[in-house]
Amino acid sequence: MERTIAHQLLSIGAVFLRPDEPFTWASGIKSPIYCDNRLILSAPKARQVVENAIAARVKELYPQCEMLMGTSTAGIAHAAIAASILDLPMGYVRGSAKDHGRANRIEGRMPQGCKVVVIEDLISTGGSVIDVVEALREEGAEVLGIISIFTYGMQKGLDRLAAAKVENHSLSCLDALVDVAVEEGYITEEQKTDILKFRDSL
After folding, report:
1. SS (H, E, C) 100-129
2. Burial class, 45, CB count within 10 angstroms (exposed 0-12 / middle 13-18 / buried 19+)
3. Is 0.90 topped by the overall pTM?
């Protein structure tokens, strides 16, 4: 699964690897990798593979799940498609409450005690998805876990998820991705080592 998803992400250009010309993340970190999983939505073959994989993991790991909740904004479409495959209700959590109407932060009808799985596109330090988990818990949801498309596997993110007492299951990860990237000629073995050193330094 990890290698299949990694291949799909590389083949559609959703992952950019530039060890010699780093990207600047929103946090200011200079990174040799940038992942844009929004591009999955405009690539039908990759989208089918990813969404079916999300649905399969929910069914396998959380058969008691009653609702999928997408993270805003990148997780919303993935949650909607997977929920359709699974015939489950779906909603999403805003980054902040609306300043008009009913001032909702959580969109979709979610009963008290609802067993929810959060759908996220990307996990780095884990801060944003944990914020979503906490918002859902505050509204009475039982968060069973998180299914994400990709994780960098940063220790900070792993520690934060553990502290929040929530488990994440990613379809693919950086380790699998750089292995496939070397095999398919996107990067060299030396560049792979540099990318993993970068990840492990954070």
Report:
1. CCCCCCEECCCCCCCEEEEEEEEECCCHHH
2. exposed
3. yes
